[in-house]
Amino acid sequence: MTMNREGRPTTPDEVGSTAPDTFTGNRALRIEEPVIFDVGTAEATGVDLPEPDGAVKSRLGGLERSEPLDLPGLAEPEAMRHYVRLSQKNYAIDMGLYPLGSCTMKHNPRLNEKMARLPGFADVHPLQPVSTVPGALELIAECARWLCVSTGMEAVAMSPKAGAHGELCGMMAIKAAHAAHGENRSIVLVPESAHGTNPATAALLGYKVVAIPAREDGTVDPAAVIERLSDDVAGIMLTNPNTCGLFERDIVEIAKAVHEAGAYFYCDGANLNAILGKARPGDLGVDCMHINLHKTFSTPHGGGGPGAGPVVLSERLKAFAPLPYVKMTAAGPELIETPADAEADGTKPFGRMTAFHGQMGMFVRAMTYMLSHGADGLRQASEDAVLNANYVRAGLQDVMSLPFGERPYMHEVLFDDSFLDDTGVSTLDFAKAMIDEGFHPMTMYFPLVVHGAMLIEPTESESKASLDLFVATLRDLVMRAKRGEVDRFKGAPWYAPRRRLDETAAARHPVLKWTPPEPQTADAAE
């Protein structure tokens, strides 16, 4: 049985082992797990439901299913085993260092999880009467206060569900502010090193995106921004530290020029992990910035979500924050959730980003992280993130190539693939070989301003011992590549549960639906 029917073979062992075959295809604790449709049957179920008494009138208006739902049924032990085995095939932050640059895959403290599971937080429902949830509202307000104070901003929208959703919120606030001034500006400036969601967000709102090239040192030149400013520019979307892992040292000058042109400064907050407690974006001239709670404040990332992307707003934009928001009064927290409430409060929300206030569980986790660290601990986390990244840089700079020289980096360090020239090993080959060594690959081929980019972010979670092993492993792989051990890389990963796929074919001809295998005939079996 194969996991996919496109691309290269995916059988678990092509390593040339002399060990005997097994009847099951398993290798001791390495279980060959079939697709769930191959395990379960539609007739089986782990739940007994009584047949309904009498005729049940359908409410589907003639759209009832005409055939049984073809879902695999499993007994409870089978379902548990299936998903536990699948989880053991995945890399995770609880297994090892996760060096994905610009993703901040840091440790998620179990204290956060314990607090989020307290009944008063875990059981709260968005449709409860407001009078029954003063504690939840106070926690949201306190979390918002910490975010405002730490970033030097005046207000925060807590409802966006992720970074890109936060970008949309911030740019919608900018658009609303221009509209309130009777302006209809149509251009947004975006550096070439920006996250891909930045130009996508601007385009979604109908703006024309004008790119700003990076100068040779990887940062944005204020002269390049000034050259592109006009009365039609609504704002700039800039990441600081930027996606090359470098602090934009001219950010104050850029902000001043943008403001003088009547535009707004949106800062992508994906890399706040590097400067929290060290520099406040509001002091640098930023008007709005989203904050990925999973990146900076340790809430679960990706499949461990859900996400949360609060957006902090400056004095110039705070009146346009979306509904709902919490206002602290002498009588306690007050939820502002209707246009009439907002008008009475003197604000002009552009609307609503989502049905309710946001991800309560993520607010609890982030607040727990803040309180357990304190202001000094949050500052140290940023210092350690920068220290760890530069420790990796120092350990690899003599064998891997740095496109912007051996200068200090922020929380992530960027290499390019020129050290692999004439080896026959590609960036992708190198990354796949890391899997065999027990490491998740770094971010590859991004940012686009560097050819064959390899972006590494160790985060503050890692100890010196784990970084030493990581650096030593990459040094060994570099030496193997330069010794001409090309086959070691071209076949990688050798030891993963599934071998390397033909990713081009998989993207062009994806297999999105399971289909039962053709039944074997007696002749075919022979």
UniProtKB/TrEMBL annotation:
InterPro entries: Aminotrans_V_dom, GDC-P_C, GDC_P, PyrdxlP-dep_Trfase, PyrdxlP-dep_Trfase_major, PyrdxlP-dep_Trfase_small. Keywords: Oxidoreductase, Pyridoxal phosphate. It is an enzyme of class 1 (oxidoreductase). It comes from the Bacteria. The keyword Oxidoreductase applies. GO terms for biological process: glycine decarboxylation via glycine cleavage system. Residues 173-302 form the Aminotransferase class V domain. Its EC number is 1.4.4.2. GO terms for molecular function: glycine binding; glycine dehydrogenase (decarboxylating) activity; pyridoxal phosphate binding. GO terms for cellular component: cytosol; glycine cleavage complex. It catalyses: N(6)-[(R)-lipoyl]-L-lysyl-[glycine-cleavage complex H protein] + glycine + H(+) = N(6)-[(R)-S(8)-aminomethyldihydrolipoyl]-L-lysyl-[glycine-cleavage complex H protein] + CO2. Residues 381-477 form the Glycine dehydrogenase C-terminal domain. Residues 1-24, 507-526 are annotated as: Disordered. The glycine cleavage system catalyzes the degradation of glycine. The P protein binds the alpha-amino group of glycine through its pyridoxal phosphate cofactor; CO(2) is released and the remaining methylamine moiety is then transferred to the lipoamide cofactor of the H protein. This is glycine dehydrogenase (aminomethyl-transferring). The lineage of its organism: Bacteria, Pseudomonadati, Pseudomonadota, Alphaproteobacteria, Hyphomicrobiales.
